[in-house]
Amino acid sequence: MRRYGVIGGGMMGQEHIRYLAMLEGAKVAAVADPHEDMRTRAVAAAGLAAVPFDDHRAMLAAMPDLDALVVATPNHTHRAVMQDLVPTGLPILLEKPVCTTVADCHWMATASAGRRAPIWIAMEYRYMPPVARLIELVRAGEIGRLHMLSIREHRYPFLNKVGHWNRFRHLSGGTMVEKCCHFFDLMRLITGAEPVRLFATGGQAVNHLGECYADGTPDIVDHAYVLVDFAGGVRCCLELCMFAEGSYHQEHVSAVGDAGKIEALIPGPARFWPGQAPRHAEVILSPRAAKAPERLPILVNEDLLHAGDHHGSTFFQHQRFLAMLQSGGPPEVSLADGVVAVEMGLAAEHSLRTGQPVILPMAVADR
Fold this sequence. Notes:
alpha/beta, 15 strands, globular
């Protein structure tokens, strides 16, 4: 039985805990969060079996027998938390984004160089069953050579978080980092290439306009288009709208090659849908030859759909993370993967605010 310590008991921390409770061979032994209400909810999600702490340093001192750590604290705290965790030598699952600045990401890469225990960056969208099936079909050559990839997310606004940190660029990294690092990671994974040029346009049209906090008024974008050219010639497009919560499919991923097209259609979380009834995803394979598209239903256990907001992907990610702990292999999502996703997000933030394309990797002055 692997004993986990979870640092950060907010919405995402609680999702990790619920899925770990469903995973054979895993146990949440401790939870650390300075916010009493979040800490209490997180311990309840663990079935009251976890020991609560108001500070992760106290948890590490009191629980020397932990086998792994999960970090789900607010984005801007990642560097400070990881300064304490990197020296422990424990395997770490670190929620995306790695950090909110390129400098902090590079600090983490340098500090972790030579570290024997793995750091896995939590990119849940890789493990959504319909997305995983699309990736499998693309790699199997079902659409020939990939030329175009488009990712559309039409969803609800950012949820309320403790301290409202997700309303501000300097705390979250901006929407292109906080939300869209998932999609930039998928672009790299599916194309198997690195980005060379990016252009973004977007703004704040609807969400959070009347809100005011101690830190001021929110400055995050709520809609955007991002175009990315990859080495080798594949072109990618991201379309994001965060005031489209009535959409039947929250995500639509489309990969087009010289022999056909594959689409993944993914419903949003059941708790935001009328009646809270879970809906299943599907993958559509459309060859260029004159025959009907093949519709592949993607069925996921309803308990998994209800336990989190990411179509069961957090559970499947934890299955793979646990397998890594047991086998001693490398992480499937490396720290380097996470750093590039942040760099792409920051490039998109820079482009949409300046109106200029960005050559990747960005010049230091643009970061």
